[in-house]
Amino acid sequence: MHIMEGFLPASHAFGWTVVSAPFVLAGAARIRTIVRERPEARLTLAASGAFAFVLSALKIPSVTGSCSHPTGTGLGAIVFGPSVMAVLGVIVLLFQALLLAHGGLTTLGANAFSMAIVGPWVAYGSWRLAQVVGLPFAAAVFLAAALGDLATYVFTSLQLALAYPDPVSGYFGAALKFGSIFAITQIPLAIAEGLLTVVVIEALSGKIRDEDRIAALSGGRE
Amino acid sequence: MAIATLDRAASLNPWRQRALAEKALIGFGFLALALLLPPWPGALLVSLAICAFTFFGARVPLRLWLTTAALPLGFLASGALMLVVEIGAGGVALAPGGLVPAAELAGRAMAATFCLIFLAMTTPMADLFGGLRRLRVPGELVELALLTYRFVFLIADEAAAMTAAQRARLGHSSRRLWLRSTAMVIASLLPRALARARRMETGLAARGWHGEMRVLSTRLPACGRRLALVVAVQLAVVLAVLAVVGLG
Q: Which positions in chain A touch B180 (Cβ < 8 Å)?
């Protein structure tokens, strides 16, 4: 869920940019070293970034009757890892703003924090936790993708609530307001994306045994 | 809207040939004004000015502009609505002073979005990235962004072809099938994208590539008179807003 251009006041837009910057700069520094050591890696990184962007422009059916687009947060966090996703996510958001007028440049920092940092880390955390608990493979993938989406949506509602508190009930009420209006589209989307990611990972990993699936994928991007 | 729509519009735009500095000053300058000036009358004046540049200067087709501007409206409508209501002890009620902040928010967001659309429709992303290099953003990152930009359209074409093939075979006839079909597209797209990258890498390595893609780009000098004109319009907007706020 993207916050549109100009929706946040200047102070909030600036604040979120400052908050996201360390994560993105750390990822960028890592990418710089990787690319210096192995120049050929940049083609793989570029193809992954382009893939993540095209993925977010595909349409999936939503329960409410309309259609929506997957965010790729969970898939990216599982396949590429959350720290790389911070940079890939910013690239995707930048392309969405300039090629689709979706999201914005001043709200890039806020969107990056919820979509490229919070979402992937929650997805990755639930993925690892589900593995530790011993959930079946498909359930772990579903949880990672669905919770990653939900975390993004809840965090965006909090960002909006911080910027526009309710006159009576304050930040809490505002979070409730923004949360409930976007729930109509975002909760079905999270479920759809969870199911989608399960099928994607299943198809990607083919007939390899469960514990080897992800290792095979990360080996495949070398 | 297809991925290439805005990029094609930007590449065909008469202002494609204008210097990047001029367009950046218009787009980013008015974007900053939209955000920093008080929404009344700042948002209105910024919207008028940026629309004048968009339609009379850059001659952006109105139809395409309307389709593009309609997209963020859904978010704006639901988001601004939240400022009109409040949650109190008795449940949800109309906020007494909610209309003014909601209108101000809507005005500011629309003005800022018009600035974003101006940039998107006059300046291809490759030109913007070229500008980033001149601003001393690390070369590796700019190269990466440029490579990503070139890959986007190849991969998008591939995805569109796969989706069309699935549709023709009733792959979207029910929701369940649709979701499954999209998952299959994604699952075959990632290995294909990576394989494409590997093939390209082999081809480039055979040609002695060391990690820098040198392409010809026409770099036009910025016209001082035009820059001065833009700054003058921006100053006029600031002064007009200050005058109105001072009077109020």
A: 199
